[in-house]
Design goal:
Blueprint (H helix, E strand, L loop, with lengths): L5 H5 L8 H26 L4 H8 L5 H15 L1 H15 L14 H20 L5 H25 L1 H9 L6 H9 L7 H39 L3 H24 L1 H17 L1 H20 L5 H6 L1 E5 L11 E6 L5 E5 L8 E4 L5 E5 L5 E5 L7 E7 L7 H8 L3 E4 L1 H28 L1
Parallel strand pairs: 5-8
Antiparallel strand pairs: 1-2, 1-7, 2-3, 3-4, 5-6, 6-7
């Protein structure tokens, strides 16, 4: 072979890439592409049970806290609470999934609820200037609406929320071992797994009891509104109730734990006031029923016993306890009652004093003189409105000394007499001037 040109010796041509190196480079690129695609596939695949548990434990108890807040808020005002939850859930759900929502999320349900709330608002707004005898029947109707709404929420809303709360503890057993191996076991998971199997049978009754005690305390405000003769008091009590519900909703928006803390305080207060609230609720229910249905008792009803509520604490029995005034075998008056309406019957001896029957605008009452031959009396028993116009029969049957007008009725009669005298005097002046 001939010798190369000197220029070619100084700048030799680039070496040709061999086929083995090309194959290795191609394999490395392919492996990298496959690795990237595998990572993307792992990210797109659904998380395992352990990953779900790890994610849920980043903020443990959030769903539980939200459930407690929802139950408490709805208990304060069942119609408004259920309707608001229905609206929010409906509009937060994708349109193609709305048919799977619970019953209270249907537009017909929460639309009807919001319409009834609007009617109640107009009643309070326009009825503030109306006389009490016109507005009070509507307040008693709202009282029974609140009872019906609470019953519907107890049956159809609270169990659903309790089941959703129970899902927080529904941990798959096979995920527990993976979580323990990863070092994330920050709670006794074995106990949680065991509790998760039985928790619906515990959480539902507990949720219903919590709902019930909060509703009783809230419903007592409705009873006070129905019984109050002053419009400004009604407005103040309405604002108190709205403020309590806003406090639960606002604290929940700040943080679910804050909402749960406020709700637990309300539940504790409800437990402490359960007896007082129950007696006041029963008092408003029976008084409102007789008033709205215009029930009338007969003489035969009086002979079997007269129902009423204690006007003051008697022999250790709380005020507004439902009792029945009867006669014992010796002919002496005695009061009988059933604690919580279900426990065995107990008796209260009527204090030996002169008994009188007081007539009232809405209901009569049984009173006793503070001293013999004293004109002042002290109420002992508030009788149901059904016993109006039966005062004379009650007085004869139980040996009452007198039938007199109550303080409110005396004031009403005095005001009416003043109006009659004023108008008649004005008429006489006009006649004298014309004459």
């Amino acid at each position: 072979m001939g010798r190369l040109h000197p220029a070619m010796q100084q700048n030799p041509p680039p070496p040709v890439m061999n086929t083995s190196f090309t194959r290795r480079l191609f394999v490395m690129i392919l492996v990298a592409l496959v690795g990237v695609s595998s990572l993307k596939a792992v990210e797109a695949s659904p998380p395992s049970a352990a990953e779900k548990l790890k994610e849920s434990m980043l903020l443990p108890g959030v769903s539980l806290s939200q459930g407690v807040s929802e139950i408490t808020g709805v208990a304060i005002s069942p119609l408004l609470g259920v309707s608001a939850m229905g609206v929010m859930t409906y509009y937060k759900t994708e349109p193609n999934l709305r048919h799977r929502l619970p019953w209270y999320c249907h537009p017909g349900v929460w639309g009807t609820g919001l319409a009834l709330i609007l009617v109640c608002f107009l009643k309070d707004f326009l009825g503030a200037a109306a006389p009490p005898l016109v507005k009070k029947p509507l307040d008693f109707l709202e009282l029974f609406e609140n009872k019906i709404s609470a019953l519907v929420a107890t049956v159809g809303f609270v169990p659903l929320v309790a089941l959703a709360m129970a899902q927080f503890n529904n941990i798959q057993p096979q995920a527990v071992n993976h979580l323990a191996d990863s070092g994330l076991a920050v709670m006794p998971l074995a106990s949680v797994v065991d509790f998760g199997v039985h928790t619906p049978w515990i959480s539902i009754p507990v949720a219903i009891v919590a709902f019930g005690v909060v509703w009783l305390s809230s419903h007592a405000i409705n009873v006070l509104i129905a019984l109050s003769p002053f419009g400004i008091v009604d407005a103040g009590l309405k604002l108190v109730k709205l403020g309590l519900m806003s406090l639960v909703a606002g604290s929940t928006l700040i943080h679910p734990y804050a909402g749960a803390a406020v709700s637990l305080v309300f539940i504790l207060v409800g437990f402490l006031l359960a007896g007082w609230s129950f007696r006041l609720t029963l008092f408003g229910t029976l008084m409102g029923r007789d008033f709205l249905l215009n029930k009338r008792a007969t003489s035969a009803d009086v002979e079997t016993g007269v129902k009423g509520f204690l006007a003051r604490r008697t022999s250790g029995v709380p005020v507004r306890t439902l009792v029945r005034l009867q006669q014992d075998p010796a002919g002496s008056p005695v009061l009988t009652y059933h604690p919580w309406l279900l426990l065995p019957e107990r008796r209260i001896v009527v204090p030996e004093a002169e008994m009188v029957i007081c007539k009232g605008l809405l209901h009569p009452s049984l009173a006793q003189r503070t001293a013999k031959d004293s004109p002042s009396v002290r109420n002992t028993l508030i009788l149901l409105p059904r016993y109006r116009r039966q005062e004379e029969v009650i007085a004869r049957h139980f040996g009452c000394q007198e039938v007199m007008d109550g303080a409110l009725l005396r004031g009403f009669k005095a005001m009416r007499q003043w109006l009659v005298d004023t108008l008649s005097s004005g008429r006489k002046l006009v006649e004298m001037h014309q004459g």
